[in-house]
């Protein structure tokens, strides 16, 4: 159910525009609790204030960087010269290539885990940039904004490339900053990263418990909240997704694909594939 105040992407993104929009809030006005059908990347440049959700309030100030996904109700109040850069984006409509970003613990923590777990974690998982990092991120944002303003030949392509550079840079900063004091959220990011890096074999729950430093029950609860699945079901689904890519983009036999993904029995692989996708690998390939 929508909040009373629900922002729609169509009011920010034009029909044929790449789904990225940069907004400068100087200063940010107090804003009632609201939701939206897009995501926001928020960088606090100056001042301070309260960022609040349905259950909690969080103090924000210069250098704070965090992601707000659309269905997470939030607002701002008690502001003192708060200056923000808001980057609105719709990841589903951007269709960016994955490449290896999903093997980054910083990416998983900042873009997925922290936004979902914010109510429980009380916001310690936000990224806090130092002055050098603020300048680095602002430089990329300024280049992004220039592309969208001038709209030269290939500007959509360049905008997407710069946005990927921004995502990668802040994911790396998050990972580097987390090495000195790993939070529970970041170790969850490391756990997901480990799974993404091992799609060519079965992973075992004991491996995941060792990486996450969590009890089995705590890990199961966290994964259910983040992904809607158990850790092992999540990993199996990712392996099957990789199989779909192979079936669509290669001439490998189904047996070869099964072995490449760590399934020693191609019949078992086909059963798991059909259970998840509703089609056999052969049927899926014919429809691709």
Structure write-up:
- By secondary structure, the chain is an alpha+beta fold.
- The protein folds into two domains: 6-178, Regulatory protein AraC (Jelly Rolls), CATH 2.60.120.280; 198-288, Orthogonal Bundle (Arc Repressor Mutant, subunit A).
- The chain has helices at residues 91-94, 105-121, 131-150, 155-178, 184-196, 205-212, 216-227, 231-249, 254-260, 266-277, 281-287; strands at residues 6-7, 20-25, 31-36, 39-52, 57-61, 64-68, 74-89, 127-128.
- Strands 1, 2, 3, 4, 5, 6, 7 and 8 form an eight-stranded mixed sheet that branches.
- A hairpin with a 4-residue loop joins strand 4 and strand 5 (57-61).
- Helix 8 (231-249) packs across helix 11 (281-287).
- The longest helix has 24 residues, at 155-178.
- The relative contact order is 0.10.
- CATH C-level class of the largest domain: Mainly Beta
- At CATH level 3, the topology of the largest domain is Jelly Rolls
| Total separate domains | 2
How far is the N terminus from the C terminus?
A: 35 Å
* Largest pleated sheet: 8 strands, mixed
**Strand content of the residues, in percent?**
15-25%
């Amino acid at each position: 159910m929508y909040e009373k105040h629900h922002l729609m992407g169509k009011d920010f993104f034009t029909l044929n525009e790449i789904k990225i929009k940069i907004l400068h809030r100087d200063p940010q006005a107090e804003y009632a609790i609201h939701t939206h059908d897009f995501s926001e990347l928020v960088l606090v440049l100056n001042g301070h204030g309260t960022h609040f959700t349905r259950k909690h309030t969080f103090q924000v100030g210069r250098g704070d960087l965090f992601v707000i996904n659309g269905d997470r109700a939030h607002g701002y109040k008690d502001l003192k010269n708060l200056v923000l850069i808001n980057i609105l984006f719709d990841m589903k409509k951007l269709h960016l290539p994955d490449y290896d970003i999903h093997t980054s613990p910083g990416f998983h923590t900042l873009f997925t885990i922290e936004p979902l777990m914010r109510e429980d974690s009380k916001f310690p998982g936000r990224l806090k940039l130092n002055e050098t990092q603020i300048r680095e991120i602002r430089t990329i944002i300024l280049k992004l904004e220039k592309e969208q303003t001038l709209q030269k030949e290939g500007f959509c392509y360049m905008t997407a490339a710069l946005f990927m550079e921004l995502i990668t840079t802040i994911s790396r900063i998050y990972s580097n900053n987390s090495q000195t004091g790993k939070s529970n959220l970041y170790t969850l990011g490391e756990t997901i990263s480990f799974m993404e890096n091992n799609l060519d074999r079965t992973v075992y729950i004991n491996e995941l418990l060792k990486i996450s430093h969590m009890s089995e029950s705590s890990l199961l609860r966290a994964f259910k909240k983040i992904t809607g699945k158990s850790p092992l079901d999540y990993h199996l689904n990712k392996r099957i997704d990789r199989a779909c890519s192979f079936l669509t983009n290669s001439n490998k036999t189904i047996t070869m694909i099964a072995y490449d993904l760590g399934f020693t029995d191609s019949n078992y692989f086909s059963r798991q594939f059909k259970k998840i996708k509703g089609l056999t690998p052969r049927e899926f390939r014919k429809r691709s």
